[in-house]
């Protein structure tokens, strides 16, 4: 049985258990193993462990950089501390891993199933055991250790690693369970759970009490604002300004990852262009990138608004270069969303329509800019005024573009206009050698 040591434990921390005596005979590792363990490169294990854990236990968080960072810090602390225990630099009962326990809290906040959490620890410690066993075999061969002594060292090393795993996993499980249960009791968590149910399609018939907890009218007209670089707390503050700017009746803040958030804004009536402009102004003045859905109605519209915001964010992120807008509306990039669902074919289309104008050169960029302005404004004079160039310069550039294309622009005006929009979202095309 575990015996909790509660003395000298700071408030709010999980009491550290006493290590289980798993083995009847548990002598220390041989001195030659402890001495050479101090030079073991524990950090080189980390990337391999992270890749295994994410692929097997946390696939839905593969693109979450903050989650990966927290997992990496926890894994690195574990690997280094295990090395210190094997080297005899610290006793097992004195191990306290703040970063590891902090990651357990992160997993509880993200509602990661305990099964996935436990599986990640098994993968992590198996990988460590695998590396340490290989290291020990290399030492045995290099020092020509006696067979019985080598077998005993391998057994004791395995016992040490398994004892460490049990000791750490116990603390992690207690931290996770405590935080998970606390979150279950919180109103904020209950709202998050209800949002998940609605997004999954399980919330068609919210009870009166659930609707009161959600505190958001699902029957209205919704806009979803995805804030890819804003954590939940800061997003809640920003939502106050958004709500005031558009005079909406309800607002709902929901974290997508540790550092990204979606804010739904709900109105009973129509969303007018003036309200959308005011929303863009608030976000632009706040200096945060944002992707905004089109308005949609009812519970299906609530879900669709998030899907649109996510699609819009894919375009905004790809377009993220000097001169690109930081706040993007779905209706302004609907064509790009549709055509960029197949980036390979989009690239082929752009290169086929623009030819030499698709190259990543200063001249090609100038010609594309002039071409797009001419299409958009419909006259050389208006394009020249927009580009702040002389009208003759615009004419000369357009003539040069037609020479490179090999045909008048008017012949494929629509295709070239679309290609000029798509190329902003694609990786540069290198000039031929």
Automatic annotation (TrEMBL):
It holds the Pfam family HTH_30. Residues 44-189 form the RsbT co-antagonist protein RsbRD N-terminal domain. Residues 367-420 form the PucR C-terminal helix-turn-helix domain. InterPro entries: CdaR-like_regulators, PucR_C-HTH_dom, PucR_C-HTH_sf, RsbRD_N_dom. It comes from the Bacteria. Residues 1-21 are annotated as: Disordered. This is Regulator of polyketide synthase expression. The lineage of its organism: Bacteria, Bacillati, Actinomycetota, Actinomycetes, Mycobacteriales.
């Amino acid at each position: 049985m575990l015996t909790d040591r509660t003395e000298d434990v700071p408030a709010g921390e999980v009491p550290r258990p006493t290590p289980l005596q798993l083995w009847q005979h548990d002598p220390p590792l041989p001195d030659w193993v402890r001495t050479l363990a101090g030079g073991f490169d524990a950090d080189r294990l980390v990337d391999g462990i992270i890749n295994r854990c994410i692929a097997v236990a946390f696939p839905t968080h593969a693109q979450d950089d903050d989650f990966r960072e927290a997992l990496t810090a926890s894994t690195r602390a574990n690997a280094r501390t295990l090395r210190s225990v094997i080297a005899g630099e610290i006793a097992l009962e004195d191990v306290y891993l703040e970063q590891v326990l902090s990651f357990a809290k992160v997993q509880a906040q993200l509602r990661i199933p305990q099964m996935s959490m436990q599986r990640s620890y098994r993968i992590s410690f198996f990988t460590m055991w695998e590396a340490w066993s290989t290291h020990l075999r290399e030492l045995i061969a290099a020092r020509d250790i006696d067979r019985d002594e080598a077998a005993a060292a391998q057994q004791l090393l395995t016992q040490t690693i398994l004892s460490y795993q049990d000791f750490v996993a116990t603390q992690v499980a207690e931290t996770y369970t405590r935080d998970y249960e606390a979150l279950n009791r919180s109103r904020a968590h209950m709202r998050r759970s209800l949002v998940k149910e609605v997004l999954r399609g399980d919330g068609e018939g919210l009870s009166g009490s659930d609707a009161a907890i959600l505190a958001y009218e699902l029957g209205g007209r919704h806009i979803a604002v995805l804030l890819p670089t804003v954590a939940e707390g800061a997003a809640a503050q920003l939502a106050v300004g958004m709500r005031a700017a558009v005079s909406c009746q309800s607002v709902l803040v929901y974290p997508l990852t540790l550092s990204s958030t979606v804010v739904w804004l709900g109105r009973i009536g129509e969303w007018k262009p003036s309200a959308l402009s005011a929303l863009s102004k608030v976000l632009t003045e706040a200096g945060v990138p944002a992707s905004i859905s089109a308005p949609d109605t009812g519970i299906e519209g609530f879900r669709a608004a998030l899907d649109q915001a996510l699609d819009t964010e894919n375009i905004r992120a790809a377009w993220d270069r000097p001169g690109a807008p930081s706040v993007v509306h779905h209706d302004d990039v609907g064509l790009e969303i549709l055509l960029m669902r197949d980036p390979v074919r989009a690239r082929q289309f752009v290169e086929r329509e623009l030819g030499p104008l698709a190259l990543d050169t200063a001249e090609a960029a100038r010609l594309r800019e002039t071409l797009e302005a001419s299409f958009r404004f419909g006259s050389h004079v208006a394009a020249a005024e927009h580009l702040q160039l002389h009208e003759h310069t615009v004419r000369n550039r357009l003539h040069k573009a037609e020479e490179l294309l090999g045909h008048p622009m008017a012949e494929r005006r629509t295709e070239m206009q679309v290609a000029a929009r798509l190329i902003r979202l694609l990786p540069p095309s290198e000039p031929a050698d």
